[in-house]
Amino acid sequence: MTQTRFFINAYEIDLSRSVVILNEQHTHVEPKVLQVLLLLAQRQREHGKQVVTHQEIMTHVWQGVEVVPNALQRCIAILRKVLGDDAKNPTIIATHPKIGYRLLVPVRWPEAAETETQKPYLKLVITLVSTLLLSTLVYLNWPNKPLPAYTRLTPVTHTDAHESHALFSPNGQHVIFNRYAGSCSSHLWARHLDSGKEFQLSNTPGQFGAPSFTPDGRELVFAAKADCDQDIVTDKTHTCWALATLDFAQALAKPQAIEPRYLCSSGQPHTPKALPNHAYAFLQHSPDQTRLLQYNDLTKTVSPLYSATDDYLYHFDYHAPSQRFALFSRDKQRNHRLTLLDKNAQILHNSPITLLPNMDPNALLAGHFSADGRTLLLISHGQLYSLELNGELNLLPTPATNLVSADQHPDSHTLVAVTGRKDIDIVKLALNHGDLAVTTQAPDLNTRSLPYPSLSRTQVQERQPQYSPDGQHIAFISNRNGVDQLWVWQNDQVIALSDASFPHPVHGFVWSPDSTQLLWAQGGKLYRAGLSGQQHSLSTRLPIHSVQAWHQSGQVLVLINDPMPGGLYRYDLTSNQLTKLGINGVQRAWQVDEQVYYSDAQSRVKRFMPGEDPADAITLPSLYGRAMVIKGEHIYSVDQTNLTLNRYDLDGNLLNTLRSLKPTAWKISDVHGEQLLLEQFIGIDQELVLIN
């Protein structure tokens, strides 16, 4: 008889439900992990405290399956965490280096007595009946063709104005989406699937986040930029975000005004969802924590629903029929976790998310409930995945390889998806130019344009060009081979420096001070290569997200998600040691002598001296971190109000204006001598498709 339950100390292990239970608290654990524990328990019952070898466990649990090298060690680590065992001083699972593992505590088997007293003929009858029933079920349910898969793609829109944030209406008759309307704004639209008729839902364009529906399907809920009260001191109107709604039923007859429900001056309310009784849930980020909040529109009050003390909470979804929340977070060990909450925000279970080998460990996951609420769908690096509620991920192959988002039809497995890509080129311009005209033209992303002659015209993304310090070469990131690679212009030739077999994005790179090597991060690993192209990985204690600056002394500034994004560290290339500098939320970083400059998510630039309290960092208000370069004794930064390129001293004081830039070509990347490198946005091609 197959064991489905056993006990270790006060823990109940239920294999039929893949849970470990302690004091009525259920923790979902991957089935493979529990199979390892079951094997250890069975061997203890059969052979006492005999060690179970690595090979025996691998053969028994993963027979015929190719796994990553540390799969077994990872399972043991999960078991220790779930069972409260300490690897340094184990009391439950003993490790025998290079041999295997064994259990240190006795296992209790509640079904043992029943198993031993069953008569042989009864066992035989049960076996025969079970076999007959199983054979009948297999026969009745044996598929005549393979299980349903996503194989067909049907275009829904094909316009010059790119679309985003698509979802089905609750009755499945309409597709709702954002359509770009120029000047960095969009309209909310609906399209009737049977007739193809489209309806503009919003009466004025704005900057809107991803919409969702109220439980009754009558209103759309989303984040929208809004004007806050005027600041009397500065005589300026501040821009903030609002939790907003729009009457969907009325908008199908006539475009409706956006109705702000709650003004959120402290930042954007992320992924707002409507709850019963005129309440709304949303994520709110703060410098050191992210919380799930609830706004009650009847009482006009905000209250906390859930906060993770030790984890970085970065995304959530809500399934209205079951009134359950799915929360995505990253723990201190930088593992992604899925937490399921009931309608009262009480934890139902918490599971680690097992990333597949080709997934970027630094990428944040944004999962959305399937129609039945049993799984979550998510997009990572253009591909579609299904996430089980126990944290198990599965790749769902589709005809599209460049997915942006996806939503499931309420009554079928059909998806509405946004698919497309951006076209970005690299430009080399004269740093000092006579044209100082202020740019007043708004960017129009609905048309393909070539603001300046491209250094190398392609139809893919070419990003972050950087001169070598001696000015002889230009390195850049490009996905012209389908994946991110580091490329170098040498002698009028473009050469791929990094390996195309890595599927992960390259988030940042730097030249060595002597111009002979490059350093970059990819898939959490740090790589180093000379211009000959021979690359090797460096040993780092933590997974690196991006590389920011390479100082003369062999010190490199890197960013690590620890677990909050943008933790600033210093990495020593000689000793392979990492030193945390005490700042999170960093987007970019530079080093001048011993001083470090960095910009945050709002592109605000600050300066501090490592070793000092980061809270005392000096703000340089004139600088814009998203378009900024530091070279020698000067800072080059773009003024976002008029798109002029200015030169500043190292204290952020304006020295002179160099030239004007264009609305889709202002993101400067490097300066050498009298030459300027920047990225220019050529166009974006995003459309809605149905996938079934």
Automatic annotation (TrEMBL):
InterPro entries: 6-blade_b-propeller_TolB-like, OmpR/PhoB-type_DNA-bd, Sig_transdc_resp-reg_C-effctor, WD40, WH-like_DNA-bd_sf
Biological process per Gene Ontology, one example term: regulation of DNA-templated transcription
Keyword annotations from UniProtKB, A to Z: DNA-binding
SUPFAM superfamilies per the UniProt record, alphabetical: C-terminal effector domain of the bipartite response regulators, DPP6 N-terminal domain-like
GO molecular function annotations of the record: DNA binding
Superkingdom of source: Bacteria
Annotated coiled-coil segments of the chain: none
Family: Belongs to the TolB family.
Protein name, per record: Uncharacterized protein
Source species: Pseudoalteromonas rubra
